[in-house]
Amino acid sequence: MRPVYYKVYDQGRYMGTYTATELQTMLHCGRQVPREYAADCQRYRGRYTFVLVNDSVGMSLQELAKAWDIERLRILRAAGRIT
Questions:
Q1: Buried/exposed 48-69: b ≥16 CB within 10 Å, e otherwise
Q2: Are 48 and 40 in contact (CB under 8 A)?
Q3: Which domain of life is it from (predicted)?
Q4: Mean of the per-residue pLDDT values of the chain
Q5: Which residue, of 6, 18, 21, 37, has the greatest Cβ tally within 10 A?
Q6: Between 11 and 59, whose confidence is greater?
Q7: Please, is 44 exposed, middle or buried when counting C-beta atoms within 10 Å of its C-beta (0-12, 13-18, 19+)?
Q8: What is the pLDDT of residues 10-37, one digit of tens each?
């Protein structure tokens, strides 16, 4: 299972991107806190805002590889590199 990352803002100022486990240690919060607060667009302790980082739009590595192969072949065919 891949770790889930969250962008963290303190009073609107960007702090960095962290996993839920790292945030648990940094902010002394439960592991589910970032997910719950990000989903509700709420501030944790009145100051921390969490934004879920979704870099692969929920696709697995196999799905991404398959989509890449399809696009790559389409481009090569359009360029006349393969038939």
A1: bbbbeeeeeeeeeeeeeeeeee
A2: no
A3: Bacteria
A4: 88
A5: 6
A6: 11
A7: middle
A8: 999 999 999 999 999 999 999 899 999 9
Strand residues in 11-62 grouped as ranges (E):
13-19, 48-53
Supply the pTM of this predicted model: 0.63
68-78 pLDDT, tens digit each: 899 999 999 99
Cα 42 versus chain centre, distance: 18
Q: Rounded distance, CA 34 to CA 48, Å?
A: 9
- Which residue shows structure tokens 């996993």? 19
Q: Are 38 and 22 in contact (CB under 8 A)?
A: no
Q: Identify any residues that bridge with 44 across adjacent strands, giving them in sequence order.
A: 48
Half-sphere exposure of 31 (CA within 13 A, CB side): 3
How far is 17 from 8, CA to CA, in rounded Å? 6
Alpha-carbon distance 27 to 70, whole Å?
A: 43
